[in-house]
UniProtKB/TrEMBL annotation:
Lineage: Eukaryota, Sar, Stramenopiles, Ochrophyta, Bolidophyceae
Name of this protein: EGF-like domain-containing protein
Keywords: Disulfide bond, EGF-like domain, Signal
Compositional bias annotation for Low complexity: 1238-1313
PROSITE patterns: EGF_1, EGF_3
Disulfide bonds: 1054-1063
Family annotation (InterPro entries): CEMIP_beta-hel_dom, EGF, Fibrocystin, PbH1, Pectin_lyas_fold, Pectin_lyase_fold/virulence
Signal peptide (UniProt feature, chain positions): 1-43
Region called Disordered, residue ranges: 1237-1319
Source organism, top-level taxon: Eukaryota
Residue stretches making up the EGF-like domain: 1025-1064
SMART domains named among the record's database cross-references: EGF, PbH1
Length: 1401
C-alpha cells in the first residue's frame, strides 16, 4: 500500500468543526459569577481631568474626614490662637533674629509674635519650652524641643525652614505637642507655602537635620484575634494593647475585609477600656470584620482585619485645606503639566487643594518618628506631600517610622531620588493618591517595612470615590484609573511585611511609566524596565478592586553592578549593555528574582502583564478573581528555575502567560481553580505566538474541581489554542491518584483544535479525547495524551498574515507517510510585524516518528527563519529531548533536533526579541547547540542580597543576609533580631508539628498573645494538636473530604455532584449527562435534577419524589424518594390555584409558570400546551398562538451589521446592532427583525432543553442512586432517601467552587442553611481601553460591547469576549452564533446574565 493511500489529510490543524467558545465563555462567566458588587465605569470621579466633580463633592470629603486639631474641647481650645487667623499682608510682617547663644520660646514670644518671622542664625540654639506663635521660623542654627512644660504645647508658624537642625524628642506620654502650620499666606523661597522642612543646597555645609520623635509606641498596628460582629462594642486583638503602648482615648481604625473590590468601609473608634487583649469601643461596629488564620502547604496567611492606632503625642497639623486658584504665569519644567512653584493652570486644573507638607531636600536628613500628620499634601503642586524625601541620594540615616498619616490630599510618603532610607511601621488612612510613592526611577534599596495602608472609603461612593484624587502628576498612581497603596517606578527597593487594604490596587510597580527610562531628574538616565528586583517578602494585599500584587506591564530584571549603580545615584552607568537585554554575543542578561511569602486574597486580580525572570515563591493566593494574572513571560536566564514554586492557590482563575516553558513546581491547588492558557494572547499586541508549554512538576490538586481551557480571542482564528499542558518528565499520573492534573496514564493535554492532528497520530493509542474518558468538561473537550507533547515554533520574517503560504506538516513512521496537515501563518498585532510564525504540537515518542515541514507548493523553509523546538529547561532540569525532524531547504544535523539548540538573540523581553541578529538562529542552522546547564549546580533563586560585600566576601551567616550597598552590614531576616540575629520571635511559641508561628511577618519584637499558632488544615486548638478527622479513614467520605466542625466533631464535605452522609450519592445515571446535568448549580441553595432533563431550584431542602438532589445534600443521601418531607412554603405573590405549585419558584421572571403533579416545574416565555399532569399557576393561555407581524428590516436595523449568509435557517438583526442566527424559529420582541427565513404559520413549540421547562419523566421512579459515578451511565434506580439538613456553609467564591454538602458524623450538630448566592457584578477596568485602542485595530468601534448591564451592575467578561468587537470590521461576526447559543443555554439554566448576552452579539 502506498504512503499516499495510508495518509489522512487535515487541511488546517486548528480548523476542527466543533467549537469550545461557549464552554470557554461559561468558564469565564463562572469565575466572576459569585464576586460581590463592584463600582461601575459610570462612577463620577476621579481621573486626572475630573477636577469639577471633585470640587463639587469637596464639602462632603472634608466633612467626612477627621482632624485632631478640630476636636473639642481640646486641642481646639489650645490651638484657637493659631487656627484660621488669615493671611498676613507684607506691611504687617516683621522679622526678628536671635543673637544670643541660646534662647527660649518663653523669652522669644515677647519680642516675636504672630506677624513676626523668626530667624535662628548659625551658632544659636532656640529651646522650645512654652507655646510659640509666630509668622514663620527659619533655622540656620538649632531648635531643640524637649518635654513640654504644659500638658499641651504648640509651635505655630506659616512655615518652618531648617538649614541647620530641628530636634524634637517627646517621650512623656502625658503631654502632647503640636506643630501647627498656619495658612497665613507666607511662602518660603525654596520650600514653598505651609512647609515644615529641612534643606541644604550647599554641598559643602553639614547636612540639615529634621528630627522629630514622639513617645515611642512598641506597635502601631495589630490584627483581630476573633471576628468583630455587627453590633459588638468589644474587639479582641492578637497583641496585648497595653504592651503595644496603646491607651484609653486612642483613636483606632479597622480595615474592611469583605471580598468587595474596593467596596469596603473602614470604621473608626475611640478606646473606652482595655482589659487584656480586649478593647471596649466607643460605639458598636456597623458591619462584620473577619479574622481568619490559615496555613496551607507550609504557608501562613493571617487573613484578619488590620487595626491601626492613629493617635500620637506629637501632632503635625495645621489649618484646613484651601482650594487656591491657579497661576497662569507658572510653567512646567518637566513636561508633566505640574509645577513645584505653585498651582499651575492647565486644561485639567484650575485650582489646587493646599494643606501642609513636610520635606527633607538635597543635603539633608529626615528622622520622622512616632508622630501624627494630618491635613497634609497639596493637590496639583509638585513635591508637596505629607512626607517627602527629595533627592537625598544615599541616605541610610533618614527614617520615617511609627507615624500615623490621616487626611491627605496628595499622597503620603514620597521617596524621590533617595536611596537606602527606611519607611517602617507607619499607618495610613484617608490618604488620597498613593500612600507610599517611589518617584523618579533611580531610587534604590529603600526599605519599606511593616507599614499598613487602609483606604477607608468605598471606591463606589459617589462623593468620595475611595482614595482617588484628580489633578496630580500621575494619572495611574493617584486617580480612579489605577490608584494604589504603594506605587513605584523603580523596582530596586525592598518591601517587607507591609499590609494594604481596600485601595483600587494594593501594590503597583509600573516600571514602564514615563517611557521606562526614568523621569524628571533621572529622565533617560534609568532603565526601570530592566532594573533588578528588590526584596519583596511577606506582604499582604486584600480587598482591592483591581490588583493586590501588581507588577503591571514590563518587568524584566537584568544583570547590573549594584554598587556602581548606587555610586552613580542610581542612574545608569557607562556600560553600553546596562539597559539592553543581551550581552555582546546574544546571551540573555536576565537576573532571576523572586517574590516570596506574599499573601493575596479578596482582590480582583493578582500578578502582572509582562514579566520574565520573576518567580512567585511560596505565594498564598486565595479567593481572588484571578489568582495569578500573567500575559507574557520567558524561560529563566539561569536555565532552570520555576515560575511558580511552593505556592497555594484556591478559588479563582490561573490566567497563564505566553512564551517559553512556564514551570509550576511543588504547588497546591485546592478548590475551584480554573487554568486559562494564553491569557490575553493576541489582544492588541499581547503575547508572542501564543504557544507556551505549561509544566506541572509535583503539584497537588486537593479536590477534583479544577478546569482547563484556552483563551479564545475574537480577532483571529483560534490563535490561543497552541498552548499545551504537560507533566514534568520524571513525574507521571498513577491510577486512582486525584492529586495529579490528568487521569492515568495521560501526561499531556492539548486543545481540541488539534484533535484531528493528534488523534490520527497512532490511531488513538497515544491521544484520546477527554470526553471519551468522561472528563470533557474538566478539560474543555481537550485531547489527553499518554506521551509528552512539546511545541514546535517556526518564527518567520517579512511575511504578511494574509498572503503567507501555509506550512505543511508531515508525520512519517517506518518510511511511510501517515499524516499530512497544514497550518496558516499567525501574526500578533500587525499582520506584517515581528510577532509572526507557525506553531503546532509534536509528540515525543523515542524517534518512532519523524516530522517533516515545508511550505505549500513544495517551497523550502527560508534560511533566516528561526525553528524552535521544546525548551532548554527540559534538558537542563531533566534530560535532553530530541525529535526526528526535517525542514525542507534546511540542514538538520543527523535528521534530529534537540531541545538544547541555539537560541541566542531570540527572546529576552517583550521588547527585545526576533531582531535582525536572530535571523538564521535556532535549530537546523549553522549555529551550535547551547552549552548544557546542570541545574543541580545552579543556586536557588534568593531574595536580593550582596553577600560578596560582607565578611570579606564570605557573606552573612545564620539568620541574616548582606544588605546591598551597606558596605558590609549583615541584616536580620524577618522575625529575627539581636546582635547576631540569634533571637527568633517564634522561638517561644510551641506550635507542634501541625502549627506555624503567626508572628514571622508582623514586625517588631512583641509576640502575639492570641492566635500565636496557625494550624494546618483540619488541625485545631491553641497549639494545633486537635484533629477529629485524623481518626477518619479515607473511604468514610467517599467523593468528598473530612472537615472538622470543632475540636471534637467532624463532617464530610462533598465534591460537586455528590451528597449523602458519606458523599456516596450521585445523580449520574439518574439525571442526564455529567454534573451539573445541564442545570445551573448556583440557582439555589438546593438544586435538583430529573431524568427528563428538568431542574429545580429551592431555598429549602428535602426529599422530592423523582428528583435527584445534586447540590445542597446533607445527611441522609442525595436522591429523592421514599417518605415525603414537608413541602416548601408557597411562593409569595402566587395565587393558590394549583396543588403542585408549592414545589416551584413563583418569582421566576417568565410569563408562564407551570407545575406538575409528578414534581416538575416549567418556566416559559412562550405559551405551549401541556399534558393533564401540568397546571399553569401563573399566566393565562392566549386565545390563539401569536404570529410575528411582518416588519421591514430596514425600518428596524439599518444598516444591518449582521452576516447576510449563515448556515442557520432563521437570521435576525436588532435595532441596537445585535445579530441572532438560529436553527429553530423562536418569537422575539419588536426590537428584532427576521431578515432571512420565514416565520411558520403556527407558533412552534420550543425544542426540548435541559432546563426547568422539561417535565418530569413518566417512567417508573428509581429506587436507589449509584454509590460512585460510573464511567458509563448505570441502570436507573429510584432514590430512596432525602437529605435532612443543609450544608454547613453556603458556597462562596468563584462559580466553579464546589457546592459542598456537610454530612455530619454521628456526633455533629445540624447547621442552618445560609442564603443562596446572588449574581454579582465586576468592573471592566482590567481591560485598559486606552492601551487597547493604542494597540488594536485602527477603526475600533468604541460602541462595541465591552461591558453590559446585568442586575447589580457591570459584569466584566475578560478578554474572552471584550476584545474590541469592531462590528464595522466584522471581527466578531463569526462568534455571534455561539453567543446566541450560549444565551439560550444560560436562559435554560435560569441564569439572569442570559438576558443581557444578546447585547454582545
Amino acid at each position: 500500500m502506498s504512503a499516499d493511500s495510508q495518509s489522512h489529510t487535515n487541511p488546517y490543524l486548528l480548523m476542527n468543526s466543533s467549537t469550545i467558545f461557549h464552554s470557554t465563555l461559561l468558564n469565564l462567566l463562572f469565575i466572576f459569577l459569585l464576586l460581590p458588587p463592584f463600582p461601575t465605569a459610570s462612577a463620577a470621579c476621579c481621573q486626572r481631568h475630573q477636577e469639577a466633580e471633585f470640587l463639587e463633592a469637596y464639602a462632603t470629603i472634608i466633612g467626612d474626614s477627621y482632624a485632631e486639631a478640630t476636636q473639642t474641647p481640646e486641642p481646639a481650645s489650645t490651638l484657637s490662637s493659631c487656627a484660621a487667623q488669615g493671611s498676613l499682608s507684607e506691611l504687617s510682617q516683621t522679622t526678628h533674629t536671635l543673637n544670643a547663644d541660646t534662647s527660649s520660646s518663653s523669652l522669644t514670644s515677647s519680642v516675636c509674635g504672630p506677624s513676626c518671622i523668626l530667624t535662628v542664625p548659625v551658632g544659636v540654639t532656640l529651646n522650645i519650652n512654652s507655646d510659640l506663635n509666630i509668622a514663620a521660623l527659619e533655622v540656620a542654627g538649632a531648635v531643640v524641643w524637649a518635654q513640654p512644660a504644659n500638658t499641651q504645647q504648640f509651635l505655630c508658624a506659616g512655615y518652618i525652614a531648617v538649614t541647620g537642625s530641628f530636634t524634637m524628642h517627646l517621650q512623656d506620654a502625658s503631654k502632647t505637642a503640636y506643630v501647627y502650620i498656619k495658612n497665613n499666606g507666607l511662602k518660603h523661597f525654596f520650600l514653598g507655602s505651609r512647609a515644615f522642612g529641612a534643606y541644604q543646597n550647599d554641598a559643602g555645609q553639614p547636612a540639615a537635620l529634621l528630627d522629630v520623635n514622639g513617645r515611642e509606641m512598641r506597635r502601631t498596628w495589630s490584627l483581630l484575634s476573633t471576628p468583630l460582629a455587627t453590633g459588638s462594642s468589644t474587639m479582641v486583638l492578637i497583641h496585648d494593647p497595653t504592651e503595644m503602648g496603646w491607651s484609653t482615648g486612642d483613636r483606632i481604625l479597622i480595615s474592611p475585609t469583605q471580598r468587595s473590590g474596593s467596596q469596603g468601609e473602614a470604621e473608626a473608634f475611640s478606646i473606652i477600656n482595655i482589659s487584656g487583649n480586649i478593647l471596649t469601643l466607643s460605639s458598636p461596629a456597623q458591619q462584620d470584620f473577619d479574622a481568619t488564620f490559615k496555613a496551607r502547604n507550609g504557608l501562613v496567611a493571617t487573613k484578619s482585619a488590620e487595626v491601626i492606632n492613629l493617635s500620637r503625642n506629637l501632632v503635625i497639623t495645621g489649618d484646613e485645606f484651601e482650594n487656591v486658584a491657579c497661576d497662569d504665569s507658572l510653567t512646567d519644567d518637566f513636561g508633566e503639566g505640574i509645577s513645584g512653584e505653585g498651582c499651575m493652570c492647565t486644561g485639567i486644573r484650575s485650582t489646587c487643594t493646599v494643606g501642609l507638607h513636610t520635606i527633607a531636600s538635597k543635603n539633608a536628613v529626615l528622622k520622622l518618628q512616632n508622630a501624627r500628620l494630618e491635613r497634609c499634601g497639596q493637590r496639583g503642586i509638585a513635591g508637596k506631600y505629607c512626607a517627602h524625601m527629595h533627592r537625598l541620594s544615599d541616605s541610610p540615616d533618614s527614617i520615617i517610622r511609627n507615624n500615623a498619616f490621616e487626611h491627605s490630599m496628595q499622597r503620603g510618603v514620597v521617596i524621590h531620588g533617595t536611596h537606602r532610607s527606611t519607611i517602617s511601621h507607619n499607618v495610613f488612612s484617608d490618604v488620597r493618591g498613593a500612600a507610599m510613592y517611589i518617584e523618579d526611577g533611580n531610587e534604590m534599596l529603600n526599605n519599606l517595612d511593616y507599614n499598613v495602608a487602609i483606604c477607608p472609603w468605598r471606591l463606589g461612593d459617589d462623593q468620595k470615590w475611595g482614595c482617588t484624587i484628580p489633578g496630580t502628576s500621575n494619572n495611574e498612581a493617584d486617580t480612579s484609573l489605577n490608584q494604589a497603596g504603594v506605587w513605584a517606578l523603580s523596582p530596586t527597593n525592598n518591601m517587607l511585611g507591609n499590609r494594604f487594604s481596600n485601595s483600587f490596587n494594593g501594590m503597583l510597580y509600573e516600571t514602564n511609566a514615563f517611557g521606562g527610562n526614568g523621569r524628571q531628574f533621572s529622565e533617560n538616565k534609568a532603565c526601570t524596565v530592566f532594573q533588578p528586583m528588590g526584596r519583596i517578602e511577606g506582604n499582604t494585599f486584600h480587598s482591592h478592586g483591581r490588583f493586590g500584587t501588581y507588577l503591571l506591564s514590563s518587568t524584566w530584571p537584568k544583570q547590573h553592578d549594584l554598587a556602581a549603580l548606587l555610586a552613580n545615584d542610581g542612574q545608569k552607568i557607562s556600560n553600553p549593555n546596562s539597559c539592553t537585554g543581551w550581552t555582546d554575543d546574544g546571551t540573555d542578561r536576565g537576573w532571576p528574582s523572586t517574590l516570596k511569602n506574599n499573601v493575596d486574597y479578596h482582590n480582583t486580580f493578582v500578578g502582572q502583564y509582562d514579566a520574565g525572570d520573576v518567580m512567585y515563591e511560596n505565594h498564598f493566593s486565595e479567593s481572588n478573581n484571578c489568582l495569578i494574572y500573567w500575559k507574557t513571560s520567558k524561560d529563566f536566564a539561569d536555565g532552570c528555575s520555576s515560575h511558580l514554586k511552593g505556592g497555594y492557590y484556591s478559588n479563582g482563575a490561573m490566567n497563564l502567560p505566553d512564551q517559553g516553558a512556564f514551570i509550576i513546581e511543588d504547588t497546591t491547588f485546592e478548590t475551584n481553580v480554573v487554568f486559562e492558557a494564553n491569557h490575553h494572547c493576541n489582544i492588541g499586541v499581547t503575547g508572542m505566538l501564543c504557544a507556551p508549554t505549561y509544566v506541572f512538576d509535583r503539584v497537588t490538586f486537593v479536590k477534583p474541581d479544577f478546569r482547563f481551557y484556552w483563551a479564545d480571542d475574537l480577532t483571529s482564528d483560534n490563535m490561543a489554542e497552541a498552548a499545551v499542558f504537560v507533566m514534568a518528565p520524571d513525574w507521571s499520573a498513577s491510577d486512582g491518584d486525584d492529586s495529579t492534573p490528568f487521569p492515568s496514564p495521560h501526561i499531556s493535554l492539548a486543545s481540541s483544535k488539534y484533535s484531528n492532528f493528534l488523534l490520527s497520530y497512532d490511531s488513538l493509542n497515544t491521544c484520546v479525547t477527554s470526553t471519551s474518558l468522561g472528563v470533557g468538561n474538566r478539560f474543555t473537550q481537550g485531547i489527553l495524551c499518554s506521551k509528552p507533547l512539546r511545541v514546535m515554533k517556526i518564527w518567520t520574517f517579512d511575511q504578511d498574515e494574509a498572503t503567507a503560504p501555509p506550512l505543511e506538516v508531515e508525520i512519517w513512521r517506518d518510511g511511510e507517510l501517515i499524516l499530512t496537515a497544514s497550518t496558516k501563518l499567525y501574526a500578533i498585532g500587525s499582520p506584517t510585524g515581528r510577532k509572526q510564525g507557525y506553531r503546532f504540537p509534536v509528540v515525543l515518542d523515542d524517534h518512532a516518528s519523524e516530522y517533516r515541514i515545508k511550505l505549500e507548493g513544495g517551497l523550502d523553509i527560508p534560511d533566516d527563519w528561526v525553528i524552535e523546538f521544546s525548551d532548554p529547561v527540559f534538558g537542563n532540569r531533566w534530560s535532553e529531548e530530541t525529535l526526528k525532524f526535517q525542514a525542507q531547504g534546511r540542514s538538520c544535523s543527523g535528521g534530529t533536533i534537540s531541545s538544547q539548540h541555539d537560541r541566542k538573540w531570540v527572546f529576552s523581553s517583550s521588547s527585545e526579541f526576533m531582531g535582525d541578529n536572530a535571523r538564521g538562529r535556532g535549530a537546523c542552522s549553522a549555529h551550535s547547540d547551547s552549552s548544557p546547564v546542570d541545574c543541580a549546580n545552579v543556586d536557588a533563586i534568593e531574595l536580593l542580597s550582596c553577600e560578596a560585600e560582607c565578611n570579606g566576601g564570605t557573606g552573612c551567616s545564620g539568620n541574616s543576609f548582606c544588605e546591598c550597598g551597606s558596605g558590609g552590614n549583615c541584616k536580620c531576616e524577618a522575625g529575627f533580631s539581636g546582635e547576631s540575629c540569634e533571637i527568633d520571635i517564634c522561638e517561644e511559641v510551641n506550635c507542634g508539628p501541625h502549627g506555624h508561628c503567626s508572628a514571622r511577618y508582623l514586625g517588631g519584637d512583641l509576640l502575639p498573645t492570641k492566635a500565636q499558632c496557625v494550624c494546618d488544615e483540619n488541625w485545631l486548638g491553641d497549639v494545633c494538636d486537635k484533629n477529629p478527622c485524623d481518626a477518619v479513614s479515607s473511604d468514610q467520605c467517599g467523593s468528598g473530604v473530612c472537615v472538622n466542625l470543632n475540636e471534637n466533631e467532624w463532617a464530610c464535605e462533598c465534591f460537586d455532584g455528590w451528597s449523602g452522609s458519606d458523599c456516596s450519592d450521585t445523580c449520574v445515571g439518574f439525571c442526564q449527562g455529567e454534573f451539573p446535568h445541564s442545570c445551573n448549580k448556583f440557582g439555589g441553595t438546593y438544586v435538583y435534577c430529573n431524568g427528563g432533563g428538568g431542574c429545580m431550584y429551592q431555598d429549602e431542602g428535602g426529599q422530592r419524589d423523582n428528583w435527584c438532589l445534586m447540590v445542597g445534600g446533607g445527611e441522609g443521601g442525595g436522591l429523592g424518594g421514599g417518605e415525603q418531607s414537608s413541602p416548601a412554603p408557597t411562593p409569595q405573590g402566587v395565587e393558590d390555584k394549583c396543588d403542585c405549585q408549592r414545589e416551584c419558584n413563583g418569582d421566576i421572571p417568565k410569563d408562564y409558570l407551570w407545575c406538575s403533579t409528578t414534581g416538575g416545574c416549567s418556566y416559559e416565555d412562550v405559551y405551549t400546551s401541556k399534558g393533564e399532569d401540568w397546571c399553569l399557576f401563573k399566566g393565562a393561555p392566549p386565545t390563539s398562538a401569536p404570529t410575528p407581524a411582518p416588519v421591514p428590516c430596514e425600518d428596524v436595523c439599518s444598516p444591518n451589521p449582521c452576516a447576510q449568509s449563515n448556515p442557520n435557517e432563521y437570521l435576525w438583526c436588532s435595532s441596537w446592532g445585535g445579530c441572532s442566527y438560529q436553527s429553530i424559529y423562536e418569537e422575539k420582541n419588536e426590537q428584532w427583525c427576521l431578515y432571512s427565513g420565514s416565520a411558520p404559520t403556527e407558533s412552534p413549540t420550543k425544542a426540548p432543553t435541559a432546563s426547568p421547562t422539561t417535565a418530569a419523566p413518566t417512567t417508573k421512579s428509581p429506587t436507589k442512586a449509584p454509590s460512585k459515578a460510573p464511567s458509563t451511565a448505570p441502570t436507573t434506580k429510584s432514590p430512596t432517601k432525602a437529605p435532612s439538613k443543609a450544608p454547613s456553609t453556603a458556597p462562596t467564591g468563584a462559580p466553579t467552587t464546589p457546592n459542598p454538602t456537610s454530612a455530619k458524623a454521628p456526633t455533629s450538630s445540624t447547621s442552618s442553611p445560609t442564603s443562596p448566592p446572588t449574581y454579582l457584578s465586576i468592573h471592566e477596568q482590567e481591560f485598559n481601553i486606552l492601551d487597547f485602542a493604542k494597540d488594536s485595530c485602527d477603526d475600533i468601534d468604541f460602541d462595541c460591547a465591552i461591558q453590559f448591564l446585568i442586575p447589580g451592575g457591570l459584569l466584566f467578561l475578560g478578554v474572552t469576549i471584550c476584545c474590541c468587537a469592531c462590528r464595522r470590521k466584522g471581527k466578531v461576526e463569526k462568534q455571534s452564533l455561539e453567543l446566541q447559543n450560549l444565551e439560550a443555554e444560560m436562559t435554560n439554566m435560569g441564569n439572569p446574565i442570559a438576558d443581557n448576552l444578546s447585547k454582545f452579539v
